[in-house]
Design goal:
432 residues; alpha/beta; Udp-n-acetylmuramoylalanyl-d-glutamate--2,6- Diaminopimelate Ligase, Chain: A, domain 1; UDP-N-acetylmuramoyl-L-alanine:D-glutamate ligase; Protein-Tyrosine Phosphatase, Chain A; 3 domains; six-stranded parallel β-sheet; 16 helices; globular
Length: 432
């Protein structure tokens, strides 16, 4: 965790100190949860301007503030752009870190892979990993600034929706090991096509870069001198309790359901081996791994099992989720799919949704609900209920005792509200 004076921070970001200089320890953008002694960074967003919360931050114990205009409530560093300055501060702090920095990007699986990396490494080494999905121009620098100089590793997630974003984050974090979890049709509205996705993701490259096996087009995106290594598990087995696989002659298991988790975990194993962790310690660490929120989270409520995989969706992640759900819940009384639109696919949207509809003919679920015009158009008569906009109460009215329900769609659809509505319905039923 960064522990610098305001004067040192000002030199790193090209700002000027106003007020009596102070030393800070840690960085926060949230005045509600700021730790005493931290630097509060005032971010001007679409809905809120952090400059309006500077006074509150100081009352909560902030030792200084990074701002874009002069304030009178405490010592500060003034810059032209606080978001850019946050990145510059993280880039300067990165030079003080002695451990291995692992940069993780991909069209899907980024956050889960970060969790698996932290699990595989954390049993034997001390390190820091991205919190939640801190993967943008604000979150990634906060991850770097939260690392300790003595850490043996730092896992930094990097996301993108338009060209150049990964390159900027890589300039800040300077990965020693880069990981591309997958290449898929995500954010095509900004990245154009799969080649655009490959070029953007390849900017995460470190001296050692790990990629999924079989993508020769991705391999060609890297500059000469980058050591690119394909990673692929074998003998993958999925059960309701987790996923087992073999990698480099050793058997591993993760308590996450889905064959795609074998790929994610293989990246974690490969990095841990690179950093000197033994297979036994890796196995013990992976056994303690937990999925991030809203990534195939299973909830048993009122006789129904709801799998909340509604954090986000693209064609590849939705297909993987559908197959994992089918494998884990094949013995359920009914398999119910609540599928929402996949957003930001540009002109590829109709064909991508049609692919998902065709996959259902193979998986043969007992009940399908379509949410959003694109999904409805693709599902056609496959959908027992079709809603242009989510009506969570109406959806839950279809659930029956013994059902297993999958919630999968893009973040903007908000399918997690179905889980909340079912909880409310069960409470109401208990009161009746």
């Amino acid at each position: 965790m960064i522990a610098w004076t305001l004067e040192r921070i000002a030199r790193a970001v090209g700002g000027r100190v106003v007020g009596e200089g102070a030393a800070v320890r840690g960085v926060s953008i949230d005045s509600r949860s700021i730790a005493p002694g931290s630097l509060f960074v005032a971010i001007a967003g679409e809905r809120f301007d952090g400059h309006g919360f500077v006074e509150s931050a100081f009352k909560s114990g902030a030792a200084g503030a990074l701002v874009a205009r002069e304030i009178s409530t405490g010592p500060c560093v003034i810059v032209d752009d606080t978001v850019r300055a946050l990145g510059e501060l993280a880039a300067a702090y990165r030079h003080t870190l002695g451990g291995a920095v692992i940069g993780v990007t991909g069209s899907c699986g980024k956050t889960t892979t970060c969790r698996l990396l932290d699990a595989a490494l954390g049993g034997a080494l001390t390190g820091t990993s991205s919190v939640k999905s801190f993967n943008n121009a604000i979150g990634a620098p906060l991850t770097v600034l939260g690392a300790r100089e003595e850490d043996a590793y730092l896992v930094c997630e990097m996301g993108t929706s338009s060209p150049g974003e990964i390159a900027r984050l890589a300039e800040i974090a300077r990965p020693d090991i880069g990981i591309i979890t997958s290449i898929g049709r995500a954010h095509l509205a900004g990245l154009g096509d799969l080649d655009g996705v490959r070029r953007e993701k390849a900017c995460v490259a470190g001296p050692l870069t790990l990629i999924p096996a079989g993508d020769d087009s991705l391999r060609r995106c890297f500059a000469t001198g980058v050591r690119v290594e394909s990673v692929a598990p074998s003998d993958v087995g999925v059960s309701e309790g987790g996923t087992a696989f073999t990698f480099l002659g050793e058997i591993y298991r993760v308590p996450l359901v889905g064959a795609h988790h074998a790929q994610n975990a293989s990246f974690a194993v490969r990095v841990a081996l690179e950093l000197g962790v033994s297979p036994a310690a890796i196995r013990a660490g992976l056994a303690r791994a937990e999925a991030p929120a809203m990534r195939f989270e299973s909830h048993s409520i009122g006789g129904v099992t709801l799998v909340n995989d509604a954090y986000n969706a693209n064609p590849e992640s939705m297909a993987a989720s559908l197959r994992a759900f089918a494998a884990a819940h094949g013995s359920s009384r009914r398999r119910v799919l609540v599928l929402g639109d996949m957003l930001e696919l540009g002109g590829d949207a109709p064909a991508a949704h049609a692919e998902i509809a065709a996959l259902l003919d193979e998986l043969r679920p007992e009940l399908v609900v379509g949410i959003g015009p694109k999904m409805i158009a693709a599902l056609g008569t496959r959908a027992a209920l079709a809603l242009d906009e989510l009506d969570a109460r109406r959806v839950t009215g279809l659930f029956e005792d013994g059902d297993a329900v999958l919630l999968k769609g893009s973040r903007g659809i908000g399918l997690e509200r179905v889980l909340d509505a079912w909880r409310e319905r069960c409470v109401e039923g208990a009161r009746a």
